[in-house]
Amino acid sequence: MLAHVVMYTTAVCPYCVMAERLLKSKGVAEIEKVRVDLDPAIREAMMTKTGRRTVPQIYIGDTHVGGFDDLSALDRAGKLNVLLGLSQPSS
User: Fold this and answer.
1) pLDDT at 11
2) C-alpha count within 13 angstroms, C-beta hemisphere, residue 16
3) Fewest 10 Å CB contacts: which of 3, 14, 65, 89?
């Protein structure tokens, strides 16, 4: 079973789209999306939790990955598959 993925996002966010595309290519069928543009309190909570103000902010399980660049770097380093709970590291 793949790890639970939560992504803080906004309505218009190209990096969010790229992050979702990468996660789906890894077999992640469901991403819990938290829209921070609909409620300032949700954005404040995200900033308090992550220390960052930009989106996306991605959590895989309990691990704060960061944004798309961080997610992509994890994939290039072969660590994303392991974090997602896939059996083999990416090549």
Assistant:
1) 95
2) 18
3) 14
Domain that holds residue 49: 5-84
The CATH number of whichever domain residue 56 belongs to comes to 3.40.30.10
**Tally of domains in the chain:** 1
pTM of the model: 0.91
Name residue 9's beta-bridge partners: 35
Nearest to 3 by CA among 26, 34, 20, 22: 26
Contact 54, 65 (CB under 8 A): no
Looking at the domain assignment, is residue 56 inside a domain? yes
3 with 58: CB under 8 angstroms? no
